[in-house]
From TrEMBL:
Post-translational modification: Binds 2 heme groups per subunit.
Localization per record: Periplasm
Residues of the Cytochrome c domain: 43-151, 195-309
Protein's UniProt name: Cytochrome C biogenesis protein CcsA
Residues where heme c 1 binds: 65, 68-69, 85
One Pfam family in the UniProt entry: Cytochrom_C
Gene Ontology CC: one annotated term: periplasmic space
Length: 334
């Protein structure tokens, strides 16, 4: 019989838990490390990757999932609100797709419970990809290379939208960003963070930020009202969770965004009104916590937030199957 031991060590003001012999050690903190993705169906993930980058799922043949969730830009588009079909300006900021599998729900108002459900939304949204599920499936069925791929993954050439969205979700589940410098600190590396970054994290905790920004994703696990201490002033029409529940108490409640990779996913908030992390920290301090941070305190918190940037997914751009004779040709200015 193998005997394992459990021990605890106090490091840098937190408890470091050591599990079974040889296992990783993690500090007892409200934020936990992100774990690497485990791929159980690589063929489905590869199909989902092609579909994620596939502009022919849009009416124009020009817009793909990656258009608004650009994997070269932290899984977002760095616009206040995204641009959709016929250059329409969308109503809300595009959340990052990175680590989205760790969220309790998808979209700012949580109207999609799963990644698969979310994947189908933009395809048929008239302001985004402006297609229908039926037409999107017809386009894929007109492309011989996709038919072969669906046969390989699903065992049938009868493509349906559930297969499409399931494959996209399988790919998106791999888009996690482990091994940030903060994750290394959580696992016991005392030298990986600077004094300023550690001070920022302690302030982040003592101010109450961790009440909402906790767990592996440093957020994404609750809905909270925007403007607790002071009202949030915006001309953005989005009203948050009330659009899903119909309850007035949920008006202006939004899903708490993840702070992972937050230095890459500007601008901030559902309306994209904060251009910088400094501005976002100042607004959140005043409106949510009733706290006015000094310039030094803001710099410390921002320094900590930047330690949450993890390893970005290493994506080799997929070669998409060529269109068939009946596949509609792109018409981006139709």
């Amino acid at each position: 019989m193998r005997i394992t031991t459990i021990s605890t060590l106090v490091l840098a003001g937190s408890v470091l838990f050591t599990g079974a012999l040889g296992a990783s050690s993690v500090r007892n903190e409200p934020i936990q490390p992100i774990e690497p993705a485990e791929v159980t169906d690589p063929a489905k993930v590869q199909l989902g990757k092609k579909l994620f980058f596939e502009p022919r799922l849009s009416r124009s043949g020009f817009i793909s999932c990656n258009s608004c969730h650009n994997l070269s830009r932290g899984g977002s588009d760095n616009l206040r609100t995204s641009i959709g079909h016929n250059w329409q300006e969308g109503p809300i900021n595009s959340p990052t797709v990175l680590n989205s599998s760790l969220n309790l729900a998808q979209f700012w108002d949580g109207r999609a419970e799963t990644l698969q459900e979310q994947a189908g939304g933009p395809i048929e949204n008239p302001m985004e990809m402006a297609f229908t599920h039926e037409l999107a499936v017809e386009v894929l069925a007109s492309i011989p290379g996709y038919v072969e791929l669906f046969v390989d993954v699903y065992g049938t050439d009868q493509i349906d939208i559930d297969m499409v969205t399931e494959a996209i979700a399988a790919f998106e589940e791999t888009l996690v960003t482990p091994n940030s410098r903060f994750d290394y600190w959580l696992r016991g590396d005392d030298d990986v963070l600077t004094a300023e970054e550690l001070a920022g994290y302690q302030l982040f905790k003592s101010s109450g930020c961790v009440a909402c920004h906790n767990g592996p994703n440093a957020g994404g696990t609750s809905f909270q009202r925007m403007g607790v201490v002071e009202p949030y002033q915006t001309d953005n029409p989005a009203e948050g969770r009330v659009a899903v529940t119909g309850k007035d108490a949920d008006r202006f409640s939004f899903k708490v965004p993840s702070l992972r990779n937050v230095e890459l996913t500007y601008p901030y908030f559902h309306d994209g009104a904060a251009d910088t992390l400094e501005e976002a920290v100042d607004i959140m301090g005043r409106l949510q916590l009733g706290r006015v941070y000094t310039e030094e305190e803001t710099a410390q918190i921002v320094a900590f937030l930047k330690t949450l940037t993890g390893e970005q997914p290493r994506i080799q751009l997929p070669i998409l199957p060529p269109s068939g004779p009946t596949t509609p040709r792109p018409q981006p200015f139709d």
